[in-house]
Design brief:
Elements (H helix, E strand, L loop, with lengths): L15 E5 L4 H11 L3 E6 L19 E5 L7 H9 L4 E4 L5 H4 L4 H7 L4 E6 L14 H8 L18 H26 L3 E6 H8 L1 H8 L19 E5 L5 E5 L3 H11 L3 H4 L8 H12 L4 H8 L6 E3 L10 H6 L2 E4 L2 E4 L23 H7 L9
Parallel strand pairs: 1-2, 1-4, 2-3, 4-5, 5-6
Antiparallel strand pairs: 7-8, 8-9, 10-11
InterPro entries: CoA-transferase_III (IPR050509), CoA-Trfase_fam_III (IPR003673), CoA-Trfase_III_dom3_sf (IPR044855), CoA-Trfase_III_dom_1_sf (IPR023606)
Protein name: Alpha-methylacyl-CoA racemase
Pfam families: CoA_transf_3
């Protein structure tokens, strides 16, 4: 695990981003751009809400600089528009209409900078019956069908951590959108608005499942399919010490290796061929896993093509030998955290700055961006 800050340029070194402070998927999207080298200036507001932790621990603000602007005060919007005039991308996550009321909506910003990419991150999107209502990750997943695929068939759908909606269906789609729009702006000189809605992104993530559903290869209920825990060779099993192993032995050759290393009786292993006997196979597999600890089973399957892995906690994950060898996690400014991803061979991302403290870089940004309005009281 590495433990230092570095300063390679990154592929987005010539990109300037204005982020209107918020929480969740918007800041994470801006962090992704910052990790790849963009000069991200976060516009914090006096007394603004955060994650409920000290700002030095808010990793979504790493690699950024922060200025303090009260958008509700006289001159606040003018100061932000000065930054916008010098920026390539703006990221905001307000409810629809809020940025407009603050004087920094798309019309005002594009009037100052016609090449600007204006990225909007919301749950419900800019239009639609629910656009103005509050929401959170679990609700967006609920209406897109994603939540209904999660969990055991005999229990309510399981509430996942907010990675699938907020960050996969939200942040990653916003980043894809703003980078595509930036390419267009630099080619054609035309900026535009990117409407990234978590409901759209979460629905889009299920494209393959919808294809299987249309082809009759997916049942629209939980634990009835190969990839949702319906198959006994694709799921999670408890070990003797109360921990768990994840099994993904879908292909026959991988399953054969799995059955051999698990020491599954040949008669039990053969039950794979008939889904009617899968409950019996599941019971046999579960019984075998309960005979040894997670650590013991990890050693059994290590280095094989059985497609079995230990289920680790967040604190355990950085110590996994493969992740440690790759440097998947790093330590910077005293905090263990995921390293920038993905990895580029010529222009890799890097951790260059610790999380920005609100307003810490106002004078610096005013100088570097030639935006003296930031210094006006």
């Amino acid at each position: 695990m590495t433990s230092e800050l570095s300063n390679p340029a990154g592929p987005l070194a010539d990109v300037r981003v204005v982020e209107l402070a918020g929480i969740g998927p918007g800041p994470f999207a801006a962090m992704l751009l910052a990790d790849l080298g963009a000069d991200v200036v976060r516009v914090d507001r006096p007394g603004g809400a955060g994650l409920g932790v000290a700002p030095e621990h808010d990793l979504t603000n790493r690699n950024k600089r922060s200025v303090l602007v009260d958008l509700k005060a006289d001159g606040g919007s003018a100061a932000v528009l000065d930054l916008v005039a010098r920026a390539d991308i703006l990221v905001e996550g307000y409810r629809p209409g809020v940025a407009e009321r603050l004087g920094v909506g798309p019309d005002a910003c594009l009037a100052r900078n016609p090449r600007l990419v204006y990225g909007r991150m919301t749950g419900w999107g800019q239009q639609g019956p629910l656009a103005a209502t509050a929401g959170h990750d679990i609700g967006y997943l609920a209406v897109t069908g994603a939540l209904g695929m999660t969990g055991a068939a005999d229990r309510p759908p399981a509430a996942p951590a907010n990675l699938l909606g907020d960050y996969a269906g939200g942040s990653l789609y916003l980043v894809t959108g703003v980078l595509a729009a930036l390419h267009h702006a630099r080619t054609h000189g035309e900026g535009q608005v990117v409407d990234a809605a978590i409901v759209d992104g979460a629905a889009h993530l299920s494209t393959m499942i919808h294809a299987l559903l249309a082809a009759g290869a997916w049942q629209d209920r939980r634990e009835a399919n190969l990839l949702d825990g319906g198959a006994p060779f694709y799921g999670v099993y408890e070990t003797a010490d109360g921990r768990h192993m994840a099994v993904g032995a879908l292909e026959q050759r991988f399953y054969d290796t799995f059955a051999t290393l698990l020491e599954l009786a040949p008669a039990d292993a053969a039950l794979r061929a008939d889904p009617a006997h899968w409950p019996e196979l599941r019971a046999a597999v579960a019984a075998r896993f309960r005979t040894r600890s997670r650590e013991e089973w990890t050693r059994v399957f290590e280095g094989s093509d059985a497609c079995v892995a230990p289920v680790l906690s967040l604190r355990e994950a950085p110590e996994h030998p493969h992740l440690a060898a790759r440097g998947t996690f790093t330590e910077a400014a005293g905090t263990v955290q995921p390293a920038p991803a993905p990895r580029l061979s010529a222009t890799p991302g890097a951790l260059r700055r610790p999380p920005a403290l609100p307003g810490a870089h106002t004078a610096e940004v005013a100088r570097d961006w030639d935006a003296p309005a930031l210094l006006e009281p």
